[in-house]
Design goal:
The protein has 208 residues and is of the alpha+beta class. The chain has 5 helices and 7 strands, in the order ααβαββαβαβββ. The chain has helices at residues 6-9, 11-14, 42-59, 114-127, 158-171; strands at residues 21-36, 79-85, 100-108, 137-152, 174-176, 181-185, 198-207.
Length: 208
């Protein structure tokens, strides 16, 4: 069986154009960690590390002679984040990054079950204990009708892209459901210059 590569098999969800477009996102399985505060602080990077550690531990099971039912070879999915603001920070003219509320997540293949993921978490906890392992969730999420686009450049410039997306909604009889949005990180921000970053921006919408 050919290796499943999300860059080829799921372009519509991960490789949009640098202009707004409509997409309907079905239900996917995710490993998730909730957090609050400035993403430049250490806890944010630790959460990313835990999610990738679990994701790669799952992917590498066959290398250790363990092949879950339905397993197929695949490329680990990119990091994603769903972002919101604490109530007290909404409406402020300047973004207060300390008031950001987020859920970091990495999509998992369809063959993964809650039981399998619990086994992975338990195994990793025994080998590399970390307090965040107790907070990891495995669940499904379906976004449904959304507007998305590829944002090129620094994260701080994202408001310009969101303005384009909201203008697109106005022109196509759509309405943004809330200020909550999703980001999919196609670049490693630790190794990529800010002006070279590639990030999928997406928010849920409805027809009006």
């Amino acid at each position: 069986m050919l290796k499943y590569e999300w860059k080829k098999a799921a372009k519509e969800f991960y490789l949009p154009k640098n202009r707004p477009e409509v997409v309907t996102v079905p239900e996917f399985k995710f490993l998730m960690l909730d957090g609050k505060g400035n993403p430049n602080e250490a806890g944010f990077a630790e959460a990313i590390g835990v999610l990738y550690l679990l994701s790669y531990s799952l992917k590498m099971l066959p290398k250790r002679g363990i092949t879950p039912e339905g397993y197929f070879d695949y490329t680990v999915f990119p990091l994603e984040g769903v972002w919101d603001l604490a109530e007290e920070a909404r409406g402020l003219e300047v973004l207060d990054k300390d008031s950001l509320i987020y859920t970091l997540m990495i999509r998992q293949p369809d063959f993964v079950t809650p039981e399998l993921m619990q086994d992975i978490i338990k195994e990793v906890r025994n080998k590399k204990p970390h307090p965040l392992l107790e907070k990891v969730k495995f669940d499904t999420m379906a976004e449904g009708l959304c507007v998305q686009m590829l944002h090129l450049g620094p994260y701080d410039d994202e408001p310009q892209s969101f303005a384009n997306m909201e203008r697109f909604c106005s022109e196509h009889n759509l309405k943004r459901l809330s200020k909550v949005h999703r980001e999919i990180y196609l670049s490693d921000f630790r190794k990529t210059q800010p002006d070279k970053l590639k990030t999928v921006l997406r928010f849920q919408a409805e027809s009006i």
